[in-house]
Amino acid sequence: MDLGIKGKWALVCAASKGLGKGCAKALVREGVNVVITARGDDALQATAAELRALNGGEVRAVAGDITTPEGRAAALAACPQVDILINNAGGPPPGDFREWDRAAWFKALDANMVTPIELIKATVDDMASRGFGRIVNITSGAVKAPIDTLGLSNGARSGLTGFVAGVARSNIAARGVTINGLLPGAFDTDRLRSGTHSASKKTGQAFDTLWQRRMQAVPAQRFGTADEFGDVCAFICSVQAGYLTGQNILLDGGAYPGTF
Known about the structure:
Elements: E1 9-13, H1 18-29, E2 33-38, H2 41-52, E3 59-63, H3 69-77, E4 84-87, H4 102-130, E5 133-138, H5 151-167, E6 177-184, H6 190-203, H7 207-216, H8 226-236, E7 248-251
Parallel strand pairs: 1-2, 1-4, 2-3, 4-5, 5-6, 6-7
Helix pairs in contact: 1-8, 4-5
């Protein structure tokens, strides 16, 4: 299927690895020109080289912290126009809410709520003026089914989701701009492995035991891959998905037990 987005420009945040990289890869394969950004320059440049080898769209890499005004300005300046915006940021650490102070809350809100809003604000009107725009916010399955130890993430990402619910249905909807959330469950990423290693050290249980136990809790009996996550993201960005907006799409291998 031709997704109809060849030649468009995309800004993909936190794209040096994991789910952001999967989204960038899928878009490049569709002929989309991408600007990828992340804090670590070495990993970012390695990913850029990998993407360029796909012989798809143009790839530009901008190292920086997207949660800062300077980082956002640099990323936006590298993109001639933003037709597609993939908001993504690493989630805040787990823990007990009793231990989180005001600074911890504001750091989580800044990365996982305010930064995506700032990027939407910087790009959405130009998208609407051109009659095409796709904004995908990578949040978390915890927006749908909160996890008690991920309170910082639950709060910040749910705040972004509530904000988007209104904006997606404003006058931009009639001008070709869609905004949707993509909610990952358990994916085989560095973050999941890091969290499992931490749990292993804390509980004394073997990494492999915890890894297999987590996997067996997924009805699909496996973890998702970054590539398949990226493919779904690319479809949401397609011309075919122009009637899909204001939605939150859960990719979790069937782990969420509800009907709705």
